[in-house]
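User: Structure tokens for this complex, please. No commentary.
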Amino acid sequence: MTATPMNPLRDGSHSFGLPLAGIRVLDLTSVWAMPYACGVLTDLGAEVIKIEGLQRLDTTREAGLYPDTNGGFEPWNNPGTYSVLNRGKRSITLNMASERGRELFRELVKTADIVVENYTARVMRNWQLDYDHLKELRPGIIMVSNTGYGHGGPWESYPVQGTSLEATTGIPNFSGYPGGRPWTIGQSYPDFVAMWHGLFGVMTALRRRTLTGEGQWIDLGMYSANVALQGEAMLDYVANGRLGERMGNRDHINGVQGAYQTAGDDQWMVVAAATDGEWLAMRGVADASGTLAWTGSPPATLAEARARHDEVDEVLSAWAATLSREAAVEAMRAAGLPAGPCNDARDLLLDPHMKVRGVYEMVDHFPGTGTGRRPIIGRAFRLSDEEIKVSRPAPKLGEANDYVFKEILGLSDSEFDDLVAEKITGTKEPLTEAPTGLPIDALLGVRRIRVHDPDYIEKLGIVQEGATPD
Amino acid sequence: MTLANELTSSPPLPGPMAGLRVLDLTRQIAGPYSTKLMADYGADVIKIEQREVGDPSRHLPPYFHDVVDAEGSLHFLYLNTSKRGITLDLKSERGREIFLDLARTADVVVENFRPGVMEEMGIGWETLHAINPRLVLTSISNFGQTGPYRDLRASELVEYGMSGVMTISGREDRSPLKHGLSQGQYDAGAYAAWVTAMMLLWQVQGREGQWVDISIMDVLSTTLVLNEPYYAWMGGIQGRRTPAGDGTGNGLADIMPCADGYVIVQHRQQEPWANVVALLEEPELDNDLYTSNEGRMLASETLYEALKKGLSRITKRELFEKGAKLGVLIGIAQDPADILNCPHLNARGYFVDVDHPTTGPMKYPGAPVRMPGTGWAVHRPAPLLGQHTDEVLDELGISAAERAELRAQKVI
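Assistant:
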């Protein structure tokens, strides 16, 4: 087994690569939150080894969303969301449900800095792979246990995913149309809240370990993190007994605001006024169009406009409907108001600002996946002296089996072959017939997508596999 | 020992950020949430506010007992726990000097002014980097410090609209929706906190500080990990929910009414459909049409009706407990009262009592992420305006006489 120094940063060689250079992460996670967190760790220089059982692949590998709905002969290697979240990782297959598999995992832990897992609370404990056991194998180890509800407490082993958990966190109590049911917003929102707080825990624990040599267990319950993001509403209940309400796109702290539909196919813009002056400017823009129909005199102050918000919405809707989205946004911005388009995925991927910010990155995916060069989501920060980039594409299943079992763990070829024979590791045979996801027509029919843009390849500069890059 | 005692640390241990000093120029919600995380996890956060007015969030409702009071905004009280507070006129020459002296002693500065304001005040990145090369500056703004939108105005709603989150949220025959409350601001705060913590890891390795640029629009956009590849992988543009079932489609994985409130039944693709049938004991659900994902999409109308029928007979708590036993993912729509009385959060000792002069002891949400052995705690309530000005300036070696003079000159 290759010996890895506990902290490569304290061995005197202060070469400044990326902040997580020399850090090895064992990633036992699936779905969205922690796979994404570990993907971002690879951008920052960490070596992340994604561990999946051949019998239990990460569900995002099975989620369809293939390039042009064609899965190819190894459809587990090319789904879009899988490729976004798991960029930069190495991939091995290891059956954690077998004693031999866990033995090998223990050996790997002895070379690792961080273990990230999102099993239900009892699983790692039953396997004697909880933090107390891991730190005996590797003093200084940092372990992230991501669960829905956190370890300890009556719900600790309840099954959870972000989509359904969002209701339980309480945030939908405040989200939705006035008088209507609660709504979830975006896509599996609690996953990202967990990801960011988990990364905060990892970074502070790594810093502390650098100073003291001590490891850390990070008990990341998604519920706890999400409740922390509604502090003022929780305090409003404690202090004032208020349970909150659903207000659509309005709220209690801003003035007059809303989303208004413009000309075009489902095109919308948003605009807000927070002072009397801004309200008059907003009204002025609508007045100038000559489409308004106030009942009586128009609201003269922000307070009056708020009191007549439904009427304000009607007037602004009538105004917006006559203009293109761009013209409506421009008119409000020219009057000094915060305004913008409601962007969809195409708008964002082609947005000049997002381009300058490097939010999306073109990544050359591995040959054989059929993915080619496509844009994936990078990160939401920039640094003054360092350009952080995605390091590698998402891995093909089991591509690092040789590296991990033979180079890191030092198994001989015959020992490795035995593991394959016992199905503790191995590779998946390519299919003989390529599966297709739901075809575009069906996706449109069930409204999974609203519009299909056949020219997206050209617009995004995608280079399909086999084509010669420019 | 009770579970709550096991899970909380009493007396508070020094947090994992103990020993770090953070100068906090942030206002409103996004910046203050990032520095609250640092402060509750042990950093010495010095919040610098404008004289007399203070952080604008002191003037945001809701207020304690609905009394308008700069020391009673519940926004402010929650977002500024564990911080020390001073007032300083950064636009005066002496105020600027004092800030730079503090910056020499600090590890991090966090700010969320409009881009360019730090430079206008003479405390921009180059100035800070020159006087303290290891210092990290974290800037949070609507659209970031670069790019054509840098100087555009925004509000939470505008950030949500531009980020792409709204076009996929809500019903397709109604307007796009944002999250309630101020989630975009909290999200950017959480994001800024983790990136700052990463820079502190680099700092302790001996690397010089850098300027971290966080954009709220970017943060929200990076959550769209299904939406982005739908376009990049097949040219598909997602929209909002069909009006069917009030936007729930076939009723699964979205919020539906039950006997006493609202719930979500989420079915995982690898799980047998029989579990959902057993959960709701509704014969109409027991249909081969619903056993595959594609089948459920194609037969959404009848599935919705059957699910609604089954749900109408069960309360949210019954469904939640039964779902856990059967391994079906269940969400229950909770309001603040449900959460405050939640048996799970209370068994974990989640809520903490914070004793602020305006409110007396009051329950606050606790640690968002638990790091046993190093501790999270509310070390002190949110500061009164200027509460620690004397204490902090005294530490800087500014005498009482000099402070009196600074007060007379309205610098502090």
